[in-house]
Amino acid sequence: MTTLETESPRYPAAAPEARPATAFFDTRLARFLTGAFSVSLGLLIWEVLSWHFQPLFLPSPQLTFYAVGELWEDGTLLQSIGASLARIMAGWSLGLVIGIPIGMLMGYFSFVRRLLDPYVEFFRFIPPIAFVTLAVIWLGPGEASKVALILYTTIFIVTINTIAGVLSVSELRLRAAAALGAGRLQTLLTVIFPSTIPYMVTGARLAMGNSFLTIVSAEIVAAQVGVGSMIWTARNYGKTEWVFVGIITLGLLGYACDRIVRFIVQRLLKRYAVAV
Amino acid sequence: MSASPSPADRSESACTGADIRLEHVSVAFGEHRIVSDINLHVAAGEFVCLLGPSGCGKSTLLNLVAGFLPATSGKVSVGGRPVHGPGRDRGVVFQSTEALFPWLTVQENVEYGPRMCGVPRSTRADAARRYLELVGLGHAGSRMPGELSGGMRQRAQIARVLVNEPSVVLMDEPFGALDAQTREVMQVEVDRIWRATRPTILFITHDIWEAILLGDRIITMTAGPDATFKTVAPVSIPRPRELTAPAALELYRDLREDIASEVRRTLQAQGLVREGLVREGSARDAAA
């Protein structure tokens, strides 16, 4: 109903035929329907495929749906989501808090850049999964090792994006600030930092995606709870449908997290010209 | 060539400017010489226009005084003190309207200078409002720069510079990106604002009429590279100026011939027409 009401001014009663034929596909309702159609089609293909295989090989959508109910009933699903999200949020936020200042300093002071560049350029090619064993040996099988791995995956992406942002601040703005009496530190805080925000947001969003990649590998190796460990546990019971539940949960969680970040950015950081 | 200051009408407001002095100044990037042996004295409170075709080193001179660029040799001083780097005593109005900080409101942009030197919040807000009023933007303080027209943004830039009460204002083709009508309005506004606040102004333009309308003195430059001053013309037409005055027309013809001869010289030296270096008027003259 709401959709129809908001769309109604677009349909002038006097001359509806003046509207181009393609306009329907731009309406909010049509865009929603297109998405819904696409998802339904995917489900249908999955259903048809599952008719031809054993449930252990490919469980049907229906079986997966029951598994969702089952895992929800005994609290496993919610607990797993909670555990994984908490680790991601902790590691990701820490990564931003540490990565952004490092990026700012590396971008602004070429001495700091030369000092840290070898490490950044070395470690950014090493995937977090390579550190899973080390993390467990050094930090134990508890939360710290998982948070540290998320932190690791976040820092490099955020730092590198922030450096790129600092280096691309226009000379014009720096000159304007200098001629208005801003010192070097003031310029860093009042001109370079705000100019770099769009790059930081890009880094944060990319890092969020990578955090989801990392959390599963970390939890598979060493965790009692979490979406990753849920997927791994399924193996012991021969419950392929639990794997599907885990995969779908990860996809939906990632999508939801990105939406939340975008929403917050649009609300709070609009004036910094962040395109999301 | 050190030209003496021209007698300008000082009656309207007390002069707040400082003098600018360039002595035997040269700038070179490696082997590439931009300007050579420039001598210039701009008197305190004087309005000097630097006129010349694009690429002749006008902006280089402005950047020297602003402190954005060091002189390869020679001395640059403002108010008797040598220039080392940018400072709030020398305000710069840039050609690009992107020089405003897009994440700050117009009011916050104008408050930026005072904020950087620790002026208390209410004092700097009052000062910003006063200067926004002066440039005719009293109503637009709460808007974002992106919501303003090009002319309004340049007004905001001028307010942002004047709120620092600089002794020198450097303007680098400030209206070059505006449409003709807005430019005419802004020229009259600059004349008014200058007479109200009386800083020293070094104004760069390639528009001859603009120079005649605004300058106490007009300095033309030879075509770069290795540019230097060609002529120094005092303008004695009383302000506010009418461009239809016979003296203005005569001055226009002289200056146009000056610049056209430089453009011709460049073209002959290069043996070809390079579009970016030649302005329409001068190009026509050169072709004739």
Structural class by SSE content of chain A: mainly alpha
Round the Cα radius of gyration of chain A to an integer and report it: 24 Å
Low-confidence stretches of chain A: 1-16
Could you name the CATH topology of chain A? MetI-like fold
Helix amount of chain A: over 70%
What is the element string of chain A, with H for helices and E for strands?
A: HHHHHHHHHHH
Per CATH, the architecture of chain A is Orthogonal Bundle
Mean pLDDT of chain B: 85
Q: Could you describe the largest sheet of chain A, including whether it forms a barrel?
A: none
Which two chains touch over the largest interface?
A-B, 20 and 27 residues
Low-confidence region ranges of chain B: 1-12, 277-288
Count of extended strands of chain A: 0
Count of extended strands of chain B: 10
Q: Report the portion of residues of chain B in β strands.
A: 15-25%
What is the helical fraction of chain B, as a range of percent?
Answer: 25-40%
- By CATH reckoning, the class of chain A would read Mainly Alpha
Continuous helix count of chain A:
11
Q: Any idea what the radius of gyration of chain B is?
A: 19 Å
Query: How much strand of chain A?
Result: under 5%
Number of helices of chain B: 8
Give the class of chain B from helix and strand content and strand pairing.
alpha/beta
What features would you describe in this structure?
Chain A is an all-alpha fold. Chain A has one domain: MetI-like (MetI-like fold), CATH 1.10.3720. Chain A is built from eleven helices and no strands. In chain A, helix 3 (61-73) crosses helix 11 (240-268), helix 4 (76-108) packs parallel to helix 7 and helix 7 (143-167) packs antiparallel against helix 9 (184-221). The model of chain A is unreliable at 1-16 (pLDDT under 50). Chain B is α/β, with parallel strands linked by helices and 288 residues long. Chain B has a domain at 90-165. Chain B has eight helices and ten strands. Chain B has helices at residues 58-66, 106-116, 121-134, 150-162, 180-197, 208-214, 246-270, 280-287; strands at 20-29, 32-42, 47-51, 73-78, 81-82, 90-93, 168-172, 200-205, 217-221, 229-234. Chain B is globular and about 55 Å long. Chain B starts with 19 loop residues before the first strand and ends with a helix. Residues 1-12 and 277-288 of chain B have low confidence and may be disordered. The interface between A and B is medium-sized, with 20 and 27 residues.
